[in-house]
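Box S2. Input/output pair 1.
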Amino acid sequence: MTGNQIEWSRKKDELVAAVKSLGFPRELGEQIAKQLGSPKAMDRMLAYLYNVKPRTAELIVDEMLAICSDIDTWHNKKAAEEANAKYNELLYYGLGTDDDMEGPIR
């Protein structure tokens, strides 16, 4: 196993144990970990579980969905920033044709 796989497995086990300690089935913890996908996201879920101590599975799933939504929003923001940077570069430098050799667009 790689270092990332070991870290993911460790966080998954911690998340499953936290879900079980609140009285929910192990399978719920496993599915939550699978959906979250990363140790950092699982850390966010663990903080929620330790601090809020939700009483229903619906509250746990709702928080998981909120975390997943935040992650999707962050990915979309980063993709938009990258696309904007490339577009600005294109505007500044042009397409690299002979007509564009005169410099930036004014």
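Box S3. Input/output pair 2.
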Amino acid sequence: MRTAFIIHGSSGSKDTHWYPWLKEKLEEKELQVFLPQFPIEEDKQTLQNWLDTLRPMKEHLSDSIIVGHSLGVPFILNVLNQWEVSARATFLVAGFSGHLKAEGEPNLDDFAERDFDWKKIKQNCKHFSVIHSDNDPYIPLGRAEELAKNLGVNVTLVKGGEHFQAQSGFQTFPLLLEKIGAELLPGS
């Protein structure tokens, strides 16, 4: 059975925004979906703790679809950079790499301020898609464009999507589902 992973953002919950909706839609397409809850307390939201949380599921990453939102994006980049995996496709939503200053968000640099081996990351995943908003209040569009350039893809720009959170109207995310279906799921 093909698998999918949905990785939430900083200080986030697996039960918010569009994550449960996407999980349900992918399960309808007969995917086994992992939607882990990562440690989000200030002293526990570390790259190592997140890697330790995902490690028991590592064997399911082969040929998987991985979706990351916000801090979930540099986390996924670390997974593809550090582990020997062969993911099928990665969808990066409102993401970044490198230093990002965000008030009240713990340990962002632990995840993102690194020298990623972009060649290795691209070897560990066949397809990348970067989705960003033209008015994200936390992550400037230029950061998404830099990320997309490093991955050799273009940014899919969403007008008025802010940070793709429930409070911005993103309890569902049809565009993301459509991109996953159009590129990866036959008959979608």
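Caption for Box S3: Strands lie at 3-7, 32-34, 65-69, 89-93, 128-133, 155-158. Helices lie at 19-28, 47-54, 72-82, 108-112, 118-123, 141-151, 174-184.
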